[in-house]
Every structure is written in C-alpha cells, then in structure tokens.
Amino acid sequence: MLIREIQLEDNVQVAKVIRTVLEEFNVPKVGTAYADPQLDRMYETYKEPKSAYFVVENEERIIGTAGIAPLANGSPDVCELQKMYFLPETRGLGVGAKMMEVCLEKAKSLGFKQCYLETMPYMEAAQKLYQRSGFEYLDKPMGCTGHTSCGVWMIKDLTTDTE
User: Fold this and answer.
1) 3-state helix, strand, coil in the chain (%, to 5)
2) What is the DSSP secondary structure assignment for residue 71, as one 8-state letter?
C-alpha cells in the first residue's frame, strides 16, 4: 500500500470511496461531507494554499483518503483534518495511523499550530484513532465547516507533539 498526494485522475475514485464509507455508516447526506460541493473535485480543492490531500493506493485502486486544509472561518493557525475515510479492507491494518501521521506532519510543515476535526458520534473506531493520535474532545464546534450533522469535535495541539 502506498500513501501519496492526490492526482487529478484520482477524483472519481476518491469521491466513490468517501460516498461508499458514508453510506456504509448511514451518515446523513445533508450537513456532512456527503453534501460537500468539492467532493467530485478533490484534486482541485486541495491545490489551494496550505492544503494537501492524500490517498492510500493498493494495486492502482484507491482504498483510503484524508487531507488537511485551513479551518473555514477559523484562526489561521488552525487546520482541519478532512475527509479521512477508509474502505473496510483497509481498516485494522495500521493504515489509518500512518495516514494520520502523514497528515499531521504536513500540517506542521505548513505552519499550523492546531489540528481540528469533526466526526459522527457512532464512528467509534475513528474516535479511538484520533485519541491515540493525541486529539482531545471539544464541547462545541470551531470555525464554520457546514457539517452541522457532525456532533463530535476534537482538536490536537501540534506545537507540543514529540512524535
């Protein structure tokens, strides 16, 4: 398995992975990543400054995704971990932890001091990964992501990370 930056030709596969996982977990189509207008144009979306998007590729097939970008309407020192999704065949193999490491290192290299994320309450395995990676729960959302259906908010301080 290879973790690499997204390419233009990945757009269709990336959108399919994200929608497949969201459907698997019965995530609402409104107020979540499912409704994001950028979903079919992820390569173009993450060409913006201080943004990066990565894919997990196995035998020329994309099986996982994640990225970082500035938090919408947030402090310029805060990025958001965005659209981190893995197909079932990828889970439990340590790929999520490796992808998290890649994203957080990129966030630090871009000068971010904190990393924020939002998720669904019943995505418990994802929350365990986030906690193992040093994320802590927040009482309310930050910024203005448009993901009004996401009821779990977490943040990680990137300045004290010794990993």
Assistant:
1) 35, 25, 40
2) P
Tens digit of pLDDT for each residue in 23-57?
898 877 767 677 778 899 999 999 999 999 999 99
Give 150 or 131, the one with higher predicted confidence: 131
What angle is formed at CA 13 by the lines to CA 128 and CA 23, rounded to 5 degrees?
A: 50
Do the beta carbons of residue 30 and residue 149 sit within 8 Å? yes
DSSP one-letter code for 65: E
Question: For the chain, what percent of residues have pLDDT higher than 90?
Answer: 73
Q: Are residues 141 and 118 in contact, defined by beta-carbon separation less than 8 angstroms? A: yes
pTM equals 0.91
Going along the chain from its start, the domains and CATH numbers come out as 2-157 (3.40.630.30)
Annotate 94-106 with b (16+ C-beta within 10 A) or e (fewer).
ebbeebbebbbeb
Determine the Cα–Cα distance for residues 115 and 103; give it in Å rounded to an integer. Answer: 10
Order of strands across the sheet that contains 78-86:
2-5, 52-58, 61-70, 78-86, 114-119, 152-157, 136-137
Which pLDDT tens digit goes with each residue over 97-113? Answer: 999 999 999 999 999 99
